[in-house]
Specification:
Layout (H helix, E strand, L loop, with lengths): L1 E5 L3 H10 L6 E6 L3 H10 L4 E3 L2 H5 L4 E6 L6 H10 L3 E5 L6 H14 L3 E4 L6 H11 L5 E9 L19 H17 L5 E6 L11 E7 L5 E7 L7 E8 L2 E6 L2 E4 L16 H15 L7 H27 L1
Parallel strand pairs: 1-2, 1-4, 2-3, 4-5, 5-6, 7-10
Antiparallel strand pairs: 7-11, 8-9, 9-10, 11-12, 12-13
Length: 322
């Protein structure tokens, strides 16, 4: 299968590293934002064609699919562009940063019939898969998820420590992981939610600290703390508190409530969550089926994010009037 990648930054490279472990997949084009770094990444991964224009990548002979690891604000437009060109598309999380754009992606996917998938890696990390299988087998019921998403990003830098051409967002990006995972693991839609945030950064114009609580009809709750001000261990830790055990997941690793490491080598064909999500994308194309984390499935998380944004905006207006 001949595929392309848009986005030469930190996460684009993570996808290229993952694809190198997947047999039968050939990356034939790279569309990037910076000519110098795009050429450098293309040469490093032996990609024969590189460009600054996604439309040019979409015209490459034999191309079947694109992975978008581009700035969040252009995800929806590029996703629609790929689907309209008849290409399957895998859009990094979040699929969009508004509910309207998310709805548009779902609509165009239905119209075109191509595979359109969101990069909801937490569904594929072996750690969360392990917990999911226990839930599906009736061996565990989630009572609470306690989640901490912490980074130290007071300047506009990416995961590789390089300057970003866009601004990250705690709600529409980082909270998206947990909102989707909470609904995925409980098998229910959020019935109640609330959010608060700290002051906006004077230059970046985004909240640097945020707190979110959610509940599903069965009574399970989720508490999520997010910060770009944390100078310490980075990333996200998920604590599952269940009726029959406690588990703490950190990306592809998992320990129990007593900090004993759990062997996940038997969970899937790889220990790399990004590789596993890419494998699902390519398999869904070959098997002509809906993938896990299709944009239609991801839409429920975007609806919750929209509700939370409205709560935050309403609170900000009330404070300004007060």
């Amino acid at each position: 299968m001949k595929v392309g990648l848009a986005g030469q930054g930190a996460f684009g490279v993570k996808h290229l590293e993952a694809i190198a472990n997947i047999p039968g997949i050939e990356v034939i084009t790279l569309a990037g934002g910076s000519p110098v770094s795009t050429e450098a990444v293309a040469k490093k991964f032996k990609i024969p064609h590189w460009t600054g224009d996604l439309a040019e990548s979409l015209k490459q002979p034999g191309l079947e699919a694109m992975i978008l690891a581009t700035p969040t604000g252009i995800h929806a437009a590029q996703g629609v562009q790929c689907m309209r060109a008849g290409k399957h598309v895998h859009i990094e999380i979040p699929i969009a940063d508004t509910l309207a754009d998310s709805e548009l992606l779902v609509k165009v996917q239905k119209e075109t019939g191509v595979v359109c998938m969101g990069g909801h890696t937490r569904r594929f990390n072996p750690s969360h898969q392990y917990v999911h299988k226990k839930i599906k087998a009736g061996e565990l019921k989630v009572l609470q998820m306690n989640v901490q998403t912490y980074f130290f990003r007071r300047t506009n830098m990416n995961a590789a420590g390089q300057p970003r051409s866009w601004t990250d967002h705690l709600l529409w990006h980082h909270a998206c992981h947990t909102v989707d995972l909470f609904q995925y693991q409980t098998g229910e839609l959020v019935s109640d939610c609330y959010a608060v945030q700290g002051p906006l950064h004077p230059e970046l114009k985004i909240a640097m600290d945020m707190g979110i609580v959610m509940k599903v009809p069965s009574g399970a709750i989720c508490t999520l703390s997010l910060s770009f001000n944390n100078k310490g261990p980075l990333g996200t830790r998920f604590r599952y508190i269940g009726d029959n055990g406690t588990y703490v997941a950190y990306y592809d690793d998992l320990v129990d409530g007593e900090d004993k490491k759990i062997d996940l080598s038997h969970v899937d064909v790889s220990m790399n969550g990004i590789e596993l999500q890419d494998r699902e994308f390519f398999s869904a194309i070959k098997e002509k089926r809906e993938p896990n984390a299709s944009v239609a499935q991801c839409f429920a998380a975007m609806q919750v994010l929209d509700r939370l944004e409205k709560i935050l905006n309403s609170s900000a207006k009330a404070q300004s009037k007060g």
